Amino acid sequence: GAVVSQHPSWVICKSGTSVKIECRSLDFQATTMFWYRQFPKQSLMLMATSNEGSKATYEQGVEKDKFLINHASLTLSTLTVTSAHPEDSSFYICSAKPGTSGRDEQFFGPGTRLTVL
Amino acid sequence: GENVEQHPSTLSVQEGDSAVIKCTYSDSASNYFPWYKQELGKRPQLIIDIRSNVGEKKDQRIAVTLNKTAKHFSLHITETQPEDSAVYFCAASRANFGNEKLTFGTGTRLTIIP
Questions:
Q1: CB atoms within 10 A of CB B20
Q2: Positions of chain A with pLDDT under 50
Q3: How many Cβ atoms sit within 10 Å of the Cβ of residue B90?
Q4: Does the structure show a pLDDT above 80 at B98?
Q5: A9/B contact by beta carbon, under 8 A
Q6: Cα separation of B40 and B5, whole Å?
Q7: What is the pLDDT of residue B7?
């Protein structure tokens, strides 16, 4: 159990276009989902916390108008990178936390590798 | 906010020997400390976690110790095997405080030498 999927697994786009990444919890309801960005040989940096039915909470330095997050249901959160530029190229990973009380662990998606040309 | 430091950044050990990775945290309210293993291009996989009401936890060859007073916790891998080679991340969070985000350490690249 506790499987998280992401789609697409990789995407290449032209500079200036927008890209949407989906994160789904397949066998549990996720009240909270998290979006991370990971540059090569670096750690995971939290971008935002997404709660179902409410606005996402962005970390300091993350542009909320550039990285649009929608958590419309208990099993789906989306991250849209708007007007992508080469510096946005990275590995984007989501995680989901089950709504069951007492469970602290987060389950990670397989990641989406974004390359902006 | 929370700050997690992790050492060493790289670690090479002979197969069969033990490996130890250490982390320190700054927020005394943090109470959940997971360890993740990440292989190249893959998702982080939870390998063990510990909560602040416990000082040590073991799962076969993997153990984690926590010293709340000193605010540090460590991952111990015994009888290392080639498949243990990966990047390991520690993390800390205030689980159940309504602010459950994980703050990750900088990672340790572990290489097991056959």
A1: 16
A2: none
A3: 29
A4: no
A5: no
A6: 22
A7: 97
Dig out the tokens for B59 from the structure.
């799962």
B62 touching A (Cβ < 8 Å): no
Q: How far is B55 from chain A (nearest CA, A)?
A: 17
- Does the pLDDT of residue B59 top 90, yes or no? yes
Q: What is chain A's percent helix, strand, coil content, to nearest 5?
A: 5, 55, 45
SS3 B111: strand
User: Chain-centre distance of CA B17, in angstroms?
Assistant: 18
The per-residue pLDDT for range B2-55, each reduced to its tens digit, is 999 999 999 999 999 999 999 999 999 999 999 999 999 999 999 999 998 889
Q: Which two tokens stand for residue A92?
A: 């984007």
Tell me: the pLDDT tens digits for B67-93? 999 999 999 999 999 999 999 999 999
* Cα–Cα dist A2/B91, whole Å: 20
The span from the CA of B76 to the CA of B65, in Å, is 8
Query: Which residues have CB under 8 Å from B74's CB, separation 6+?
Result: B20, B21, B22, B23, B64, B65
pLDDT of residue B54: 86
- Torsion, CA B56, CA B98, CA B44, CA B36, rounded to 10: -10
Rounded to the nearest angstrom, the minimum Cα separation between A102 and chain B is: 8
The structure tokens listed for B87 are: 């990047």
